[in-house]
Design goal:
The chain has 114 residues and is mostly helical. It has one domain: Ribosomal protein L20, C-terminal domain (c-terminal domain of poly(a) binding protein), CATH 1.10.1900.20. It has five helices and no strands. Helix 4 (91-100) packs across helix 5.
Length: 114
């Protein structure tokens, strides 16, 4: 008779089924369906952690562009001027300034334009 470790295999399935809690239909209570759903979900999670960074960067660029155009500059021209003037502020901070602190953002734009 062969030895089968039911304790370990059940624990493994239990762990997987716990992750599937809250899924719709058979994805939450049928082992094979749940296993596939979780695998796919983890793939999406891995991929979208990277996509999220891309999307935020794009959002910051749009906000900076909108803020800079009020002063007659384009985004690319503004970023070029920042580099020329050795001003090291990342896009996240610039976007925040453009949205929430227009006076500070204006000061940066004026400094760069001179």
């Amino acid at each position: 008779m062969r030895s089968v470790n039911h304790v370990a295999s059940r624990a493994r399935r239990k762990k997987t089924m716990k992750i599937a809690k809250g899924y719709f239909g058979r994805r939450k209570n049928v082992w094979t369906v749940a296993k596939n759903a979780i695998e796919k979900g983890l793939q999406y999670a891995y991929r979208d952690r990277k996509v999220k960074k891309r999307e935020y960067r794009a959002l910051w660029i749009q906000r900076i562009n909108a803020g800079v155009r009020e002063y007659g500059l384009s985004y690319s021209a503004f970023m070029g001027l920042l580099k020329e003037n050795n001003i090291d502020i990342n896009r996240k901070v610039l976007a925040d300034l453009a949205m929430n602190h227009p006076d500070a953002f204006k000061a940066i734009v004026e400094k760069v334009k001179k």
